[in-house]
Design goal:
By secondary structure, the protein is α/β, with parallel strands linked by helices. It has seven helices and five strands. A five-stranded parallel beta sheet has the order 2-1-3-4-5. The longest helix is centred in the last third of the chain and has 17 residues. The termini are far apart.
């Protein structure tokens, strides 16, 4: 059985390690990257080749520009928000899934699985914002 490759981008080591432990426990996922720096992940993206990127709500900060517009490498990957604080609805819309620090291990695994399956079956769903070039075409 193929395991889904997960990258975790979360500045809190305690939270990142906890999420990694819960994700791996199911046997469906393997954590191939963990850091608090999204740019570092993007720089190493071709080497890491994740199927799923879990992004902590503190990582993006106040930037309102969609992640896939900022980082085109994220186009074919499932993006899941790890909610540790309140974020606006616009941020949530660009994600393929959302997990909360209060979710049970079972809920987390289900939501990650659903996000990966949704991305694999429909990589350009309506929830993804179009780039300027895509809008021009």
């Amino acid at each position: 059985m193929r395991k889904f490759r997960v990258a975790i981008v979360e500045p809190s080591t305690i939270i990142a390690e906890g999420v990694a432990t819960l994700v791996v426990r199911s046997g469906e996922f393997e954590v191939v990257y963990s850091s608090g720096d999204l740019r570092l992940l993007v720089e190493r993206f071709a080497i890491i080749e994740p199927d799923l990127v879990i992004v902590g709500s503190q990582v993006v900060g106040a930037n309102s520009q969609p992640l896939r517009s900022l980082y085109p490498e994220l186009q074919g990957v499932a993006l899941v928000a790890l909610m540790t604080s309140v974020r606006d609805e616009e941020y949530m819309r660009q994600m393929d899934g959302v997990i909360n620090i209060y979710d049970s291990p079972h809920q987390i695994q289900q939501r990650l699985r659903k996000a990966v399956e949704q991305t694999q079956s429909n990589p350009y769903s309506e929830s993804h914002d179009l780039s300027e070039r895509e809008q021009d075409v």
